[in-house]
Amino acid sequence: MKQYFSKILFFLTLIALFGGAKAVSAASINYASILDSNATSVIVKYGSLETKSIFSCTLSNFSCKKSTSSSFAYPTVAKNAVKQSVYYNAQKTHAVGIAKTPGAETYTVNSYNFSKSTKPISTALLSIPAKPTKITWSDDSTHVLFAYPSYTIYNGFRILDLSTGAVSSEYYFTVDTPAALTVSPLGNYIAYYTGTKSNEAGTRTYYLYDLKNNKQYTNTVSVPYWDLVGDQPRLFSFAPDESSLVYVGDQDGSMSLYRVDLHALPADSVTFGGQKVSLIKGNVGDFFFVKNSSLLVVSNDEINPYIWSLRSIDFGKNTISIIRNNVSYVAKMRQVGSNILINALKNNSSVPVAYNFKTGAVRFFASFPLSTTTIPGTREVFQTADEYGVLIKPKTITASTPLLIWLHGGPYRQTSFGYHPYASYGVYDWMLDEAVKSGAIVLKLDYRGSQGYGSAYASSIKGEVGRGDVSDVVNAEAALRAKITFGKTYLVGNSYGGYLSLKSIVEHPETFRGALSINGVTDWADLLVNIRTSIFNIHFGGVPSLANQTLYDQASIINKVSNLGDNPIIVAQGTADQTVDPSQAPLITGVLNQVRKNVTLVEYKGSDHVFSTKAPLEDLCRRLIKLSELTLPKGVCVFK
Prior knowledge:
- Strands 1, 2, 3, 4, 25, 26, 27 and 28 form an eight-stranded mixed β-sheet that branches. Strands 29-30-32-31-33-34-35-36 form an eight-stranded mixed β-sheet, with helices on both faces. Strands 5-6-7-8 form a four-stranded antiparallel β-sheet, with no helix packed on it.
- Residues about 1-25 have low confidence and may be disordered.
- Helices cover about 15% and strands about 35% of the residues.
- It has about 650 residues and is α+β, with helices and mostly antiparallel strands.
């Protein structure tokens, strides 16, 4: 699965990510998020942890000004003689107004294109038995699908052409809850899917409905694990001329794209497959057709999985090119006119960048510059035969330099070379950088179950909670110790990583000197009895029972606390945690105190699972450095 870096590739990686600049520590984080958009502008929230501002930015000249509103106002439609419910597309450029016809099973639908008028551009009569329960726009906002309860077992739907007012025949879904419903630009196809049940493995089925020929095709694949496709930003994209459909799947081992020729659908079959887009060598995030044969895709690299890039595929020429390295893979791209917006990452910043697919220009907003402050330490991709990670070395390493192994939550997450695209993880990258400034080595580890390496690696944690994941941590520590000389090893993690920190130290107290668990799970049985639709039900095969008790015993921290010596353990918990019940923290500390172990419970009043204020993070930072037996330098662990 893994390939080793050459020295040349390694240095190119450093230059690509950091520009080769001299390392000077960053003491803050600056993240931007796009809150809303319309035909020409976006609203952006930007700033550090507690000092965020809202800006309204225009893409005509890429200028921004501060705003007090987090969304654009909806355009006002011209007054209608009959009261109607108005539904807007995401960009607020189009709308439909729906009014019930008294005493009849019909609705009048007025269509609006605000670039032309606030008056209807067309009016149609929609013959349906009940008010629509779901309205789905095509990506180009030319067609709208109305889903509604029907007299059959499944919901019916009709599609409206906004420009002409033409309404399609009545069609029917063949499932109760079609997910990721996508309407083609000309309204001749729809695509949707159904995944596995939330607490068990099974199958995933993709549906492609050819409305012109009233024929539905399906593609059913086995899902031996949690349905990871459901976590993708987007599942389908149609070419503007409806020549092809691209969808995402992991049935070949990696998160890949498959292209379907819509002009060559089988006449003698009701199934479809599609050809894997082999130009993509890594794993896919978001993707989006911008031209008939041109697809934008966010994907990582098969050699360096931490470089996620915005790429352009030309199906006509069978080529792929990089538009921008180091972009966020966690959210959908957003289209504003001919610009596609996505966040770019550098050092301690994440800011929007616009790619104009007509001109090829890549531009930033002057109000949101990429950080020029280089983050500390020398960084390299860490590899064993089975794992990836990011190794950060301080300026000086001696035989007493401590190693901190960072274990992210999830477990279906990926660590980052610099700061994480999720701001909720970026705050921990800040904390780890402060530890590097204080003299620690940091290894950010992607143990089994992590994202970015394909479905086989993600699913390899199934049945291995508390065993295989612990082995990954132990093996990584041993592999690094075989390469360089350092002192004691400490574990730190959040959420699932908090659990893994505690589980690893109770299993191997001779290897790990101390641990800091942040909002971590401490008792799976107690947690999952109350959360029955979770990815962790897959890991354990359901809630506790005689059939799976062995797996719960394998994962137990409490069963192994007697292994501990005087290893210092800190259990940190937000009292308002909505993800991991705050009672999990005093549960484990109570057990550890009962057997007289060296444990400290730290509770942050009012904090949720994701910390959004400086105080708890600064305190955690200081505690981590003290745990590592390092001296806290002046100015370290202080947000600026």
